[in-house]
Amino acid sequence: MSIDHPSFGKLDDSRIIIFDTTLRDGEQSPGFSMNMQEKLRMALALTELGVDVLEAGFPIASQGDFDSVKLIAETVRGPVITGLARTGRADILRAAEAVAPAERKRIHVFLSTSPLHMKYKLRMEPEAVLQLTIDSVTLARHHTDDVEWSAEDGSRTDPDFLCRCVEAAIRAGATTINIPDTVGYALPEDMFRIFAMVRERVPGADKIVLSTHNHNDLGLAVANTLAAIRAGARQVECTINGIGERAGNAALEEIVMAIRTRPDAVACKPTIVTENIIKTSKLLSTITGFDVQPNKAIVGRNAFAHESGIHQDGVLKNAATYEIMTPESVGLLKSSLVMGKHSGRAAFRDKLRTLGYGELGDNQLNDAFRRFKDLADRKKIVYDEDISALVDDEVLRDHDRIRFVSLDVRSGSKAPPRADLELEIDGVVRGAHETGDGPVDATFNAIRACFAHDATLSLFSVGAVTEGTDAQARVTVRLMEAGKMVDGQGADTDTIVASARAYVHALNKLLVKRARTEPAALSA
To answer: Do 57 and 38 form a contact (C-beta atoms < 8 A)?
Structure first.
């Protein structure tokens, strides 16, 4: 069986379309806000990874979201660029405007269809929902040939009504139909049944792409995705590291590697460059400030680690005894120890390319090289992880409104700790001298003196980038303000400096979050 799709042409039954929603559903996670340049950098990385559809954002949500989607549409070539919209006219027109510059574009319209959502969220009768489905898809089709329609809370929707809505959306011109498990309620057998039912009962279902979008509230998002594929879904909606609202979305890396590892069970072919998985995962962690758990499948630091003596013995004799995929297949390379204080600019630039940073601008390269030389003077061995940590501070945050300049801390048992701090705020350097209950508290008091804010500190965590007493500290700071949560990260061989960098990173993310306003649920 093959499908004629406006964006992909002829699609045979073995083709799986990877729809990445890291920049939309993923960014809706508490604390995971990104600024425009961070979104663009992530979009370019996802393009290198090989995603087919890139959901760039929710254009009606805020001016910042609109600008980010439009910038990605103007800049990124390769994936289909899509913007999310509710069924209201303003939403659809705003999404159409944002994705208009894209080489290939899609408008993604969603509407709740479950009895619970229709009664309490939409306050609409089923027939009105059915008509709104038709009207919204028809309007979207006036602006692009590629329209996706989603039945929000589809897994809890009455089967007969779901089929009626899907048929109506197809007749109105939808080219992709998404049936999401919005609240992570379904079991794999539920998703298989739903997709098999739609394929069997809905006229025209064999002429469009069926899509699956699963949340992980019961830890079943990936299992539900694979079940939907086996029942006929040919687009999977997922995120890097499984980020997303509440417990997150189905993880792209887990889905792709499950398909690659088990072709006997899932005979489909995604176009993902799996060797870029680790690099993309680390980039997202750096941008958002959220590290993945050590035992996270595929991308966790323990995913290919073996401590048990029996396991170690087996892997040494034949890696396949305990490894069902190779570390190299997902881009996991052993750290190189060749960089040091005698390394030159050319070697440093080449190392950055190896680590996936591409070509940096002259100013970015100079700043990063300066910090590298300073680090090399303080550390005996500079690991790849050290370079990544310092470059992330300089490169990924060069559009921040607040920048760390300097810090001098005096601490001990004889006098209150004191911090002398300088920050650059909107291009102007400001200084503060504060005391506190310890050097970190004094430093944070100085930051608040330089940049007044009402956010409260709800998490302060310190870890090490590498081993040894000269290792860089990686600090995570979580700030809360008016129900908004952000995490910031900073790295330095001096733990107090790393703490200051992390706090400043969190503040910059909070400024982005302040500008974002979530649209209210559509009501009749």
So the answer is: no
